Amino acid sequence: MRRNIRINNYVLIITALISIGHQFQFADASPLGFPPLPFIRGGSATTATKTRTTKQQHQRQRRQRKTGGLPGPLKLVGNVKQGLDKIGGNIQNDWKKISKGMQTVQGNIGKFVVNIPKALPFLPPRKRQLKCSKLDDVCKTFSACLKGSEVDTAQLIKACRAHLIFMKSGGSSLRLVAKDLESNLQKAEKPFKKSPKQGKTLSSLLESEREAGIHQGNVLKEQSAAMGLLWIRRSLAFQLDLYSSLIAQNGPHPRDAAYEAYSKHLSPFHGWALRKVFPASLSQMPGRQAFIAKFGGVSLEELNDEYDREIVKKLKALVAAWDPLINTWEKDFARLDLEDMRKV
To answer: What is the pLDDT of residues 96-111, one digit of tens each?
Structure first.
């Protein structure tokens, strides 16, 4: 009895090993990595292939149907592996779809942002602020110079300083005019700083120098406030005519307007050398639009009708402030007989 049981156990073990050997290729390329079993018939894939007969194949198939195929644990491992492979494939496919969908969403968002101004026509376009701070400072400071019938000296010097900065931003065509203004401004500042109370107004400053006897009648001392202020006034009169020509869009070319203003306000007091040098510098005057753009702090391409009107409005305010100021200035010099007519 025990002998029969023992024989039956051996048969079951051998049958199981044969079944495993038949189901898997236990060669070196075995996916599960089981070692080959050469001592079992059918354990080696190569040997089994060579010696397998049709009858043995049928027998093995019948045994597999009876035993249910692979042993439970191995069958479970195979099923799990197949399931994981299938899940991994689904994840890859889903990820491709998600990536494609995200690209589509991003493209749609970009189109939406670009089309916002078109979709919302009631929103006004963003307007660039003009960089007219220098021109604004000039208008503001010169407007405060005239106090009734008197010219405030401190405010006048402050305004001329602001105007010097503004002129230097006007390009090379005004460089010589700016250099001349700076030199004469230094002449006016030095005596005023020595006695600001005596020179509180333009007329009082001129009177203090005349009473000090530094001039010979209307022949002014070269390094004096009167000499500096005389040439500053002439320079501003020249620029008043030039800037007035820029107000009208169909006015003369700035170069032509500069020549005419020079002939009226500066040429009568220039010697032969300056009459050659000064007009040559004015020949570099750009067109009206280039001037307007520089004064407004925008490029020529950005200049439009709206910017043009705004800048011209500021130029009108400057010209309006200069006109009565220069007239009062001239009267003070004429009253004190300090109008030096010599050429330089």
So the answer is: 777 777 777 666 666 6
